[in-house]
Design brief:
The chain has four helices and no strands. It is mainly alpha-helical.
């Protein structure tokens, strides 16, 4: 087992942590959650490339786009106030 095989565990933890944060009532925690989700997308993509898991890579790219959309909506809501 090499180090990239172990990368799936921090990716797993980051994904769960991000979901917890995004579900928060506090705007600051939700914003941090979007960034943690982006980190998890990168980790899963690296692991997916190593494993040739192309569907997982495509999913992570799509989820990253949705995360960026969420970040923008959060920023737009801040600027509207």
């Amino acid at each position: 087992m090499n180090l990239i095989d172990l990368l799936q565990w921090p990716a797993f933890v980051a994904s769960l942590g991000a979901a917890w944060l995004v579900a928060s009532n506090a705007k600051a925690r939700r914003n941090i959650g979007f960034w943690v989700f982006l980190v998890s997308n990168v980790l899963w993509t690296i692991w997916g490339l190593h494993e040739s898991a192309y569907a997982l890579i495509a999913l992570q790219v799509c989820l990253a786009v949705l995360n960026v959309r969420g970040l923008r909506k959060t920023d737009d809501a801040k600027n509207a106030k």
